[in-house]
Structure formats: structure tokens, C-alpha cells
Amino acid sequence: MDGEREHPCPPPPLPSSIAADxxxxxxxxxxxxxxxxTVYRLHGKxxxxxxxxxxxxxxxxDDVTDELVRLGWLAAHSQVPAVRTFLRxxxxxxxxxxxxxxxxxxxxxxxxxxNGPAIVEALAxxxxxxxxxxxxxxxxxxxxxxxxSQAKARIAASLVDTDDFDDAQTGWTADRVWNAMQALLPxxxxxxxxxxxxxxxxxxxxxxxxxxxxxxxxxGIADRYQDLxxxxxxxxxxxxxxxxxxxxxxxISAPDKRKLDFHLLLDELF
Length: 270
Known about the structure:
Elements: E1 6-8, H1 16-19, E2 26-30, E3 38-43, E4 51-57, H2 59-74, E5 83-88, E6 92-98, E7 103-104, H3 105-111, H4 116-131, H5 144-156, H6 174-182, E8 191-194, E9 203-206, E10 209-213, E11 220-223, H7 225-235, H8 240-250, H9 257-268
Antiparallel strand pairs: 1-2, 2-3, 3-4, 4-6, 5-6, 7-9, 8-11, 9-10
Helix pairs in contact: 4-8, 6-9, 7-8, 7-9
Family: Belongs to the aminoglycoside phosphotransferase family.
Keywords: Antibiotic resistance, ATP-binding, Kinase, Nucleotide-binding, Transferase
EC number: 2.7.1.95
């Protein structure tokens, strides 16, 4: 990952069973999409693959556990990190995984801006394949009704980071986001198997194609706009032409603005 999205750090305090697995690695802390937990990239050990370690406490430990379970299921449908070690205590969780080859879609767009349309096409192909997985095969519910119940609990517990809102919601309170979402309901359901957090940092590309995904703790059955909205929003950094291309490459000629707005607001609360 590029230097702006991670920084070198010393190893954190670790359980002895994990410390033995990661001896000899250099450490870097990921500064993107941590959702309250900590994510480290372990690299530079001769003859050994790069690894990632996630650590969470309290409710974030539950999120790390959710990711472990979803990794096991998704492995049959998409390339995902292989679990090396998982350790859970009543209040903490550690998840050690192998790294997927390739570079993130964000890195690719920064390094090859002229290749943006082809990169977006690869992302759209990946989403179409993911969304084509039969919903009957997926045991995880992530629809907006379920996510709204989680969001309401996060608001009540003062867990929403309003300083991290998108520019369009700068200065908003979490309650204002909640009320804006309610005004967009109801939504016509269009359930598919979703990744749940398809940011450009969570998709890996190699040789022009998506080779896998990471950060799958929110995967489950939801409206396809759960994925499309987040990816569309991330592409805004690289211009509206690529945002438009996402929908045309995916096969949607007229995006549903109501669903787009709703899912972008919902994401602010997580």
C-alpha cells in the first residue's frame, strides 16, 4: 500500500500464540477503513508471504469474528485471504490472514490514471459475478432493515464518527443522517449477495482483472446498491466519468438515485 494509507510501526502487544507466527516481519499500520479496529500489514520476511493482522476490542471484536465466519463461506465463491490464526477472548479478537496477490483498485487508479476505464470495467465484472451468486446459498443477512437496526444502536451508543462524514454531510449530526434516510424509505428490495463494503481499497487487481477482495465482515444478502453506492462514491475522487462508467459497465442505464443516496447515508453511520 502507498505511504499515505499506512505507516511503519512497531509490533503491538500480542498473545504468545500469534507472536510466534509473526516473528521476523516488519510492521505497518493501515490507516484506511479500520472501523474502530486496527489493521496491520506484515511484510519483509525473507521467503515468507505478506500477512495481515486485524485486532478488535469490545463490539469491534465481534466484527472481527463476523469476518472470520464470512471468509470461510466466501472462499468457495471468491478469492479471499486464507486464515492463518484466529484467537478470541471475551473482549478481544485477533485474525491473522495471508495477503492476496495484486494491488488495490485505489493503487491501480493512482498509478495508472489513463487506464481508469479498464479498471472500472474489471470492478464491474467482479460485482456482476458476486451479485450472481444464488442468494439461497448465502447464510448471512445484511439488508437495510438489519443494517438500520445496527445503525440505530450505534447512534444510541455514540459510536458514530461524525468527523469522518463525506463532504456532503459535513456538520451533520448522526440523528440528521438517520432522519434523511427515513425520508427515503421505503425502498423496493432487490436482494443479491453483496460484499458490503466495496471500497477501492478492498478490491485487489492483477493483470487487469479482480483477483480477490478483503474486509468482508459485512458480506451478506442486501440490495445491490449496498455495493454500487460505496464503489460509486469512492470513484468520485477520480472524476464523474468513471462514476458513470461503473453503472454502464455493470449494466444499469439509469441509476436509482433514491437507493444511491440512501446507501451512502447508511454508510456514514458505520
